Amino acid sequence: MQSEFLSRLMPRPSLDAARVSRERPARTAPDEWGQLMAAAQDGHGGAYRRLLAEMSAWLTRYFTRRLPAGEVDDAVQETLMAVHRRRHTYDPRFPFGPWLAAIAKNKWVDQLRSLARHPDGELSDDVAVGDHEASVVSTSVLATLLEALRPAQAQAILLVKVQGYSVEEASSRIGLSPSAVKMNIHRGLTRLTALIEKTPDVE
Amino acid sequence: MSNDALIAELSSGLAPVRRRSVAREGALLLALCGMELSLFLAMGAMRPDMNHAADSPYLMWRVGSLACLAVTACAVAIHSFSPAARTRPGLTLAGTLAAAAIVAGVFVAPSGTAHRALLDRLDPASGIVCATSIVVLSLPVMALLGALMRRAAPTEPRLSALAAGLAAGTCGAFVFAFCCPFNDPLYAVVWYSIGCGAVTAAARWCLPRRFRL
């Protein structure tokens, strides 16, 4: 029943989207990004600018499949800043992809935690309820993960955090009180972050 | 701020950085432990019968297993400070080593200890002093590992903190093993575990606080 509900709200991504979801930084630019980062560590600003621009595009795709649309830009910028602060920890002898993917995953979890702390937080204007295509793409990985939650938690997260309904609207659709909806969002997102942290490679 | 503006800001006036080196961090940790042990022994804290006890199986077991555990835990902790590192397998290895060391302790007990009463063997008054000494001796190592952790990029900070606590606790216990006059393995297992456990719990609670990549 939960899968039915999820597929009604967010149909499975198309083949193209699935192909994109398997994309990783190591496959797109295995050594080049590592070389650019090594140059950036030596103070080469041009190489760093190019690396950040390419990473930004990859991160946007990464977070688009994992977070509600309104959270993607924040997550991308948080990750870019984390990469900047921790750039000295990259070892050029190893591939750059896993290094970046680990930081991106950490920021994904941070962003979900921040959503859990504000279950009724206002969403930005770019989360359009009617933008069905965006919501399909935006949550392809999230949809799979939500299946691990209790149905009431998954429904509350989908309606409020993904579809952009208010807590009151979601409560009348689900048939629960607004405080129960908030609690389900908080507990669901907390469980989701724990699940992601325990899973070594979420795709 | 747009992504482009952020990228322009981050890449303008970029300064070179000194790359993190696992070997340098390991050497720092080794130097600190060595210095602590030297200072401790120079203060005259070494057990008085060390000349006779040095080749006894119970002292060799205690010092050897603690050295092995300390090296493993320090390696796991330093390795875990890399973003792509997996900490759980290392912690499992350290736990297995600790269990093996405890089991090995059964075979090195000095003769006559098995007949003594349990409370007599544990000697809680001295045990509390031993556990407290281990906690105090582990503080410098914990501080160093905490600083290294904050400067690095652990993506599993709670597990890294656990590994750092275990490393600090076993280093403290290793230094203390040279002065502890008790030979009973049961005493060592109970009170050293309590000391190491307290340090690990404190590190797990303190080190990840306010940590953000």
TrEMBL record, chain A:
<dbReference type="InterPro" id="IPR013324">
    <property type="entry name" value="RNA_pol_sigma_r3/r4-like"/>
</dbReference>
<dbReference type="InterPro" id="IPR013249">
    <property type="entry name" value="RNA_pol_sigma70_r4_t2"/>
</dbReference>
<comment type="similarity">
    <text>Belongs to the sigma-70 factor family. ECF subfamily.</text>
</comment>
<dbReference type="InterPro" id="IPR014284">
    <property type="entry name" value="RNA_pol_sigma-70_dom"/>
</dbReference>
<dbReference type="InterPro" id="IPR036388">
    <property type="entry name" value="WH-like_DNA-bd_sf"/>
</dbReference>
<dbReference type="InterPro" id="IPR007627">
    <property type="entry name" value="RNA_pol_sigma70_r2"/>
</dbReference>
<dbReference type="Pfam" id="PF04542">
    <property type="entry name" value="Sigma70_r2"/>
</dbReference>
<dbReference type="Pfam" id="PF08281">
    <property type="entry name" value="Sigma70_r4_2"/>
</dbReference>
<dbReference type="InterPro" id="IPR039425">
    <property type="entry name" value="RNA_pol_sigma-70-like"/>
</dbReference>
<dbReference type="InterPro" id="IPR013325">
    <property type="entry name" value="RNA_pol_sigma_r2"/>
</dbReference>
<keyword id="KW-0805">Transcription regulation</keyword>
<keyword id="KW-0804">Transcription</keyword>
<keyword id="KW-0238">DNA-binding</keyword>
<protein>
    <submittedName>
        <fullName>Sigma-70 family RNA polymerase sigma factor</fullName>
    </submittedName>
</protein>
<feature type="domain" description="RNA polymerase sigma-70 region 2">
    <location>
        <begin position="56"/>
        <end position="117"/>
    </location>
</feature>
<feature type="domain" description="RNA polymerase sigma factor 70 region 4 type 2">
    <location>
        <begin position="142"/>
        <end position="192"/>
    </location>
</feature>
<keyword id="KW-0731">Sigma factor</keyword>
UniProtKB/TrEMBL annotation, chain B:
<feature type="transmembrane region" description="Helical">
    <location>
        <begin position="190"/>
        <end position="207"/>
    </location>
</feature>
<protein>
    <submittedName>
        <fullName>DUF1109 domain-containing protein</fullName>
    </submittedName>
</protein>
<feature type="transmembrane region" description="Helical">
    <location>
        <begin position="90"/>
        <end position="113"/>
    </location>
</feature>
<dbReference type="Pfam" id="PF06532">
    <property type="entry name" value="NrsF"/>
</dbReference>
<keyword id="KW-0472">Membrane</keyword>
<keyword id="KW-1133">Transmembrane helix</keyword>
<feature type="transmembrane region" description="Helical">
    <location>
        <begin position="125"/>
        <end position="147"/>
    </location>
</feature>
<feature type="transmembrane region" description="Helical">
    <location>
        <begin position="27"/>
        <end position="46"/>
    </location>
</feature>
<feature type="transmembrane region" description="Helical">
    <location>
        <begin position="159"/>
        <end position="178"/>
    </location>
</feature>
<feature type="transmembrane region" description="Helical">
    <location>
        <begin position="58"/>
        <end position="78"/>
    </location>
</feature>
<dbReference type="InterPro" id="IPR009495">
    <property type="entry name" value="NrsF"/>
</dbReference>
<keyword id="KW-0812">Transmembrane</keyword>
